[in-house]
């Protein structure tokens, strides 16, 4: 397997497909999954001549199930180790959900300062901050995240069936047709990872404040979000992030769920491709930092 060991001794698994001299696209996955969640997008872009790199976050997938370091600073630093090991330049970083937070922090703290990033894409992403605070009154109450922790601790395997069977892909909506292969693949990816990494990761994705990271990012950034996202509600995420970005563009998909990269890959992939190739006219809603 392709792995790189960090200075802390953590083995990070990664996939590296396609021509080594092509523009790289780096994929950052959501909680509690792995880079396998990007299979559709990675095959699409390698088929279009790009170099694609998928990273399993520490404690997830095939990376080491370490006890500690399950926070956004470590996630971003681990991604930087892979990027520097592969010497990726002019890269496009794409993050979904928790991976959107990881990608945001990576670009702000590592990629942009080192001149390695061309563009950023945030899909159903957790920034600026999910939890309700005095500064974020529209956020979700801490009880929501305490509930996730309890379900994980009580019966992780059942929890990893219930989440994709219901809100993650909006399979709980009237008329929806749940896909058992999609649900089983979500469960498979989740159970590959470590319980403690996933437990600690809930705090990382819900309580990390990315406001200053977003303000500092200058590279072109595309924000994609479904307005039926039941995991990361759009009003307290994408609609706020776009106001903080200096060079951001927003596209909202009507009735798309949180797991839109799986359920609507036929729509998302061409939009990602258009953005990467600079066809900005397809994205009509723009935002800019004040």
What would the keywords be for this entry?
290 residues; disordered C terminus; alpha/beta; Rossmann fold
Description:
By secondary structure, the chain is an alpha/beta fold. The chain is built from 10 helices and 9 strands. The protein is globular. Helices cover 40% and strands 17% of the residues. The protein has helices spanning 39-47, 72-86, 98-111, 142-165, 180-192, 195-207, 211-216, 238-244, 260-263, 265-276, and strands at residues 3-5, 11-17, 24-28, 51-55, 91-96, 117-123, 221-226, 248-253, 285-287. The longest helix is centred in the middle third of the chain and has 24 residues, at 142-165. Residues 285-290 have low confidence and may be disordered.
Task: Give the helix level as a range of percent.
Answer: 40-55%
Strand-residue proportion: 15-25%
CATH superfamily: Alpha/Beta hydrolase fold, catalytic domain
CATH class: Alpha Beta
The helix/strand series, from N terminus to C terminus, equals EEEHEHEHEHHHHEHEHHE
Low-confidence spans: pLDDT under 50, at least 5 residues? 285-290
- Identify the overall geometry: globular
CATH domain fold name: Rossmann fold
The number of domains is 1
Estimated radius of gyration: 17 Å
Mean pLDDT: 96
Question: Main beta sheet: strand number and arrangement?
Answer: 9 strands, mixed
């Amino acid at each position: 397997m392709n792995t790189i060991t960090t200075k802390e001794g953590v083995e990070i698994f990664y996939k590296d497909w396609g021509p080594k001299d092509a523009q790289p696209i780096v994929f950052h996955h959501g909680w509690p999954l792995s880079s396998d969640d990007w299979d559709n997008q990675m095959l699409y872009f390698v088929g279009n001549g790009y170099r694609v790199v998928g990273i399993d976050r520490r404690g997830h997938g095939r990376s080491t199930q370490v006890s500690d370091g399950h926070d956004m600073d470590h996630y971003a630093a681990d991604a930087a180790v892979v990027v520097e090991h592969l010497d990726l330049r002019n890269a496009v970083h794409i993050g979904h959900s928790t991976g959107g937070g990881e990608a945001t922090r990576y670009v702000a703290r590592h990629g942009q300062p080192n001149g390695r990033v061309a563009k950023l894409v945030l899909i159903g992403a957790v920034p600026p901050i999910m939890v309700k605070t005095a500064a974020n009154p529209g956020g979700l109450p801490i009880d929501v995240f305490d509930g996730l922790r309890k379900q994980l601790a009580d019966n992780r395997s059942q929890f990893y069936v219930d989440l994709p069977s219901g809100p993650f892909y909006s399979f709980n909506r009237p008329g929806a047709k749940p896909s058992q292969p999609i649900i089983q693949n979500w469960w498979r990816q989740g159970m590959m990872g470590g319980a403690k990494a996933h437990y600690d990761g809930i705090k990382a994705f819900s309580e990390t404040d990315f406001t200053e990271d977003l303000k500092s990012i200058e590279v072109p950034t595309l924000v994609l979000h479904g307005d039926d996202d039941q995991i990361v509600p759009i009003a307290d995420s994408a609609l706020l992030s776009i106001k903080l970005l200096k060079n951001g563009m927003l596209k909202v998909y009507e009735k798309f769920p949180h797991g839109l990269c799986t359920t609507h890959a036929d729509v998302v992939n061409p939009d990602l491709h258009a953005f990467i190739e600079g066809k900005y006219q397809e994205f009509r809603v723009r935002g800019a930092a004040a």
